[in-house]
Amino acid sequence: MTMGDRSNNQNGAPTGQGPGATGEQGPEGLGFRVLDRRHWVDTDDAESSEAPRADVPTYVQQLEAQLREKDEKLREYIAAYKSEVAGELQQTRERLERDALQRQAQIRQELILPMLEVFETLEMAISAARSGGDKASILAGVERVSQLMVTKFQEMGVERVPTVGQRFDPTQHEAVALMPVTDPDQDKCVIAEFSPGFSCEGRVFRPAKVQVGQLQS
Question: pTM score > 0.70 for this model?
Fold first, then answer.
């Protein structure tokens, strides 16, 4: 090495490619720059570690997966609930149908039971007529049946609609014939009854078929 070389080295001018020197002017014009060669510092690795990996789910993806899972469970719960409710409704419907049939049978029995006494009385009257009873006894037996029937109707709240001598009432009577009358008091009054009418608790469920007087001018 010559004196000139030493002089240049002492002044800090670069003489060649030394360790850590690039030959480029640094930011301060010193002619070199320092590179950090520590093995634990790697700019590229640091930058790449900050970026999310493609195979690692993000937070939003995790939320979407949880939402899909909860949605699937909710569908299962709804399906199970619908199945349970449908089964309960079917059982309730069957129970109500059974109760309705039982109630209908009970109502029929309650209606028939009072009529059994009437039926027995009618059979006795028929038996008396067949055994050669006189006309008066047969008539008495039939009248007894009729009176018993009226009594049973009254016990059930059924009453006979009054007809003959009453003013014609279209809510209770059905006029099936007219009869000319000269008495003004008989005008629009029931002259005869062809078929009895009945009411229950004040409501006529069968109007009486009657003949009504019509005044002749």
Answer: no
